[in-house]
Amino acid sequence: MIDLILQLAPAWAEAHAPALIIVLPLLAGPISAFLPGSGRIAWIMTMVVTALCTLLSIILLAQVRSVEGGAVISYAMGGWAPPYGIEFRIDALNVLVLMLVSFIAFLTSIFGWPTIRAEINEEKRAMFFGAFQVCFMGLLGVAATGDAFNLFVFLELSSIATYVLVALGSGRDRRALPAAINYLLMGTIGASFYVVGVGFLYAATGTLNMADLAIQLQDTSGNRAVQVGFAFILVGLGLKAAMFPLHQWLPNAYTYSPSFVTAFLAATATKVAIYALVRFLFSVFSLEFIFEGASLALILTPMGIAAMLACSFQAIFQTDVRRTLAYSSVAQVGYMLLGISLGTAAGVSAGMFHLVNHALMKGALFMAVAGVVLTYQGTRIHDFAGLGRSAPWTMTAFAIAALSLIGVPLTAGFQSKFALVSALLASGWWWAALIVVFSSVLAVVYMGRILQAVFFKPPNNPQKRQKEAPMLLLGPLWVLALANLWIGINGNFVVGLANDAAQALFIGGVR
Amino acid sequence: MKTDHHVILRVVAKPLIPIISLFALYVHFHGDYSPGGGFQAGVIIAVAVILYSLIFGITPAMKAVPPWFARSLSALGFIIFGAVGVWALMMGGNYLDYDALFNEEPGGHYGQHYGILFVELGVLFAVAGSMLSIFYAFAGRVTEIKDEDW
Predict the structure, then answer these.
(1) Which of A199, A202, A364, A449 could be cross-linked to A480 through a Cys-Cys bond (beta carbons 3.0 to 4.6 Å apart)?
(2) How far apart are the CA of A194 and the nearest CA of chain B, in angstroms?
(3) Could you give the residue ranges of the DSSP H alpha helices within A206-309?
(4) Count: domains in chain B
(5) Interface contact flag, B95 A19, Cβ < 8 Å
(6) Per residue in A208-265, pLDDT tens?
(7) What ipTM goes with this model?
(8) Distance CA A5, CA A55 (A)
(9) Is residue B70 part of a domain?
(10) Smallest Cα–Cα separation from A277: which of A332, A205, A352?
(11) Dihedral pair phi/psi, residue A465, rounded to 5°
């Protein structure tokens, strides 16, 4: 399989894939913002670009996996050799993120057209797709780059485009505007914390390249500037990743942005920030630093557990389906942080595995909600009553993803929660394993409320004519739902990727 | 008596505006020898238009440099920057590798020189366009201040 991909791919694509995967959406974004018409051409262009990026990420994956244990691809931007120039560095960890982001972007852009036609003004559609591609490019850039400051630039590019995308939900609900400005303020604070942290590291080491930073930092464990830099980076990236007390921007942003944007962001944005956090925790810094071990045990673990409990409870008391799912997203981030904070290869692998699965299930859930918004114009649980009978295809996919979110056997969510619990038990954290199980029970409650309304309550308005979401929406939705089942039954492929990612951090990696 | 209080402002500002624009180009093209470059030049060009709109009002300014033009300018700048990189890719170098632009012998520096100028030109367009778009977005919201309100 790997040989086949490498044979089929043209030589230029193989040599320049790390740059091309960024350059394609970078150039297509501004071009599609000026395409004429009602936005249909811009949509087709978005689909083509995201499809090409998915192909490029598959080529990168094949290249990384062509060597036993995972190769590291280094690409010198502008021909300036690292550590002086900006380096794009692809290893087993970020190729997984690149593939996830571009695949989800491809699926969401296919399903996007009907919902965007319903929710965005005609003259803004082309600009909308332009902003979406810039956001997509920024997320890929964060994942691909090997330069700490360059990561900040891409993080801001994607965030600024995201604020625009969230604000465009104001056509449907004016509350999108305060949600966007709130997200803007919080996101900017997070980004400035990150850049201050990078500034401290630069002051202490004189380098910005992550691989070089890792080497320079080895004998500076007592340095206060390094410790302060670490703290700033942890908080900054934690804010972007919606780590528990810093998640306040997320529920409103997910609730009021256009359905298309919610489906894309929920599956990618926080995931990329978590990747960046993992990159800093385990390959720029390392567990040999005493302050890092303390911050894992005293900050990440309690915050992860608090998110799992508090936000699951909050999700139970929501009346809006999108808000329930948004709080559940914060809770799921808690699972990932708990896995990461174990500080073992098994824990990080479980965290990454759950990251991929959560992207697949939340993507499917928000796509199904987008279908309901399109046909029934409502997102309250009350509006979902009886939809199991009138829109069986949409709601069956929704139910599969919901079961996966709960962690029912034979679904992806079960596999990754099982991996997480095994990793916890292997480290002797049986109490944390119990909390994971308890939090899953809470998930049964909040998803159960929705599923009960969908399948067991009589419909609100039986006269409603349009029943099922359009085919364009059902296709990607079912791809994601079936991916959840496939990983649940035979997850070896994704488990292999997640294990390689963790191995890259702990054995080979940047060092 | 005429009620035009701003005649001196107008007389002084009018010849200044082309000089400001020219200075922007100087800052851009001299950027590799002295402080400056595309970003600063873009800001200065935007300043020329903003000065015009402060003196003569936002409506004439929007007529001279329409908002759609400002938006297109920023996107065009983005595209120029990216396209220089693609040009380097086509010539067989890495992305944005200026040395590859003209297929020079080793030791030639035309590529580095012109490459950075083109890229900075893209930055100039993008910055000028974005600054103007932001200014228009804010200034376009309030009603014009009448002469009597001064």
Answers:
(1) A364
(2) 24
(3) 210-216, 224-240, 249-256, 259-278, 290-295, 301-306
(4) 1
(5) yes
(6) 999 999 888 887 767 888 989 999 999 999 999 999 889 989 999 999 999 999 999 9
(7) 0.86
(8) 10
(9) yes
(10) A352
(11) -90, -55
